Amino acid sequence: MNENMKKIVNVATPAVCAVALILSVAAITKTNAATAPAPIVASTTAAPAGQPVDLTYAAEKALPSVVYIKSVQNSKVQTVEYSDPFEDFFSDPFGGFFGRGQSQGNGGRRQRQVQTPKRAAAGSGVIISADGYIVTNNHVVDGADELTVSLNEGSKEYSARVIGADKTTDLALIKIDAKNLPAITIANSDNVKVGEWVLAVGNPLGLNNTVTAGIISAKARTLGANGVESFIQTDAAINQGNSGGALVNTRGELVGINAMLASPTGSNIGYGFAIPTAIMNKVVDDLKQYGNVQRAMIGIQGSDVKSYVDNQKDNGKDIDLGTMEGIYIAKVVEDGAAESAGLKEGDVITSIESKKVTSFGELQGVLAKKRPGDKVSITYLRDKKSRNATLTLKNEQGNTKVVKNADTDVLGADFRPITDAQKKQLEINYGLEVIKVNGGKMKEAGVPKGFIIQRVNDEPMRTFDDLQNVVKEANNSKDQMLVIRGIFPTGKKGGFVVYLQNE
Predict the structure, then answer these.
(1) Residue 110's pLDDT is what?
(2) DSSP state for residue 141 in the 8-state scheme
(3) Annotated active-site positions, please?
(4) How many helices (H) and strands (E) does the chain have?
(5) Contact criterion met (CB below 8 Å) for 320 and 342
(6) Is the dihedral of CA 446, 449, 453, 457 positive or negative?
(7) In degrees, to the nearest 5, what angle opens at C-alpha 314 toward C-alphas 308 and 319?
(8) Coil, strand or helix: which one is 358?
(9) Which of helix, strand or coil describes residue 409?
(10) pLDDT, tens digit (0-9, with 9 covering 90-100), for 233-257
(11) 468 vs 71: which has the higher pLDDT
(12) φ, ψ (nearest 5 deg) of residue 271
């Protein structure tokens, strides 16, 4: 496929009368719940060679377990920046009397408040337990103020709540209050084979309860759209609205969650990509148990050997690593699992857990099923000689501790958006005032009552939700740190550093 023409599309579809949101690769740079019964895991065996394939059984088995999800973002008032190129040339001596608004500094940057329209979008989900747990894509539920789930027969609708979501794998777990639901049987995606028949089940283009057929055309694909990718590729027709739906084998067992399509048009003229159940199961378990995903890191940066060698040849360098398969290590992360095991730049990982790896997708597929503290055995080449090592995987902070969900409670303070009077007095347009410091991380950092927070980790703080989001993101980063900038009640600017390390 011509790379200049290909689009990678998150296949959620806009609802009726809503604006479509299509993301290309170039554009892509909660709470714990009671544990549900463990999903049924089935073994997979290939159909006898040369036998006709009947897909009606698979469709009948899978259809009742796939739901329609409607996501609504309510209308909101947002502050946006815009450029006024005449600001530096024609100042307003009457202080905004003629409606030019308040200048926000050099270059004619201004801010105004706008009312966003109410937006609705739709996708699919898969029931994985009889008591209401449903798996879908993160991009189906991201930013939703309301989630509505309709069962396959269309007779029942439920409000859903988000148990947890993971942008890195593009998976989300939601729940509805219901019993005796038709949970799908979950197969081990590691056992599926290229050429095997599969069905894509979902709600594409507003056409509910739709089944399309194709084969598995590749495994362990990476597209560069998510942080962790090891997609199952299929030529079963997938379109917008299939996001979060089921990819099932000929027995109607779940092998993947449909997530994206590659197409020159944004609709199905290409391939679809599904997140394997081997990754899904681990993400679901983590979201239930911890509220977020416990991500195991190997601590390297690099590329497929073939890509590295081809790149070096393009630059006039002849490279012989002793193999054309494996993962070339371009950098070993300080204090990471690989460094602790003695791996170095220039080494080539050829297998992990006795399984040959030829691409980063295969490596990510193995690591996505692990947690910090797990040990993995690898084989690698150094100077064309084979060596073995055992790595203890670490989290993003470089240790093996459980990374817990953090919220603003850890800060030990109360906040509120600044008033119009404060905006006028201090000549600012937004901020969160610290109205009480009870203890916790804010007190440790010396943040006083009355301080107005304007930016945290370079993100503007206009609402309490802005603060909650940046705290959660920082907690999952290596530094676990908040860099706070703002203004004192006297008008003096200041800043603080707040550390979020777990006890």
Answers:
(1) 64
(2) H
(3) 139, 170, 243
(4) 9, 30
(5) no
(6) positive
(7) 50
(8) coil
(9) helix
(10) 999 999 889 999 999 999 999 999 9
(11) 71
(12) -125, 150
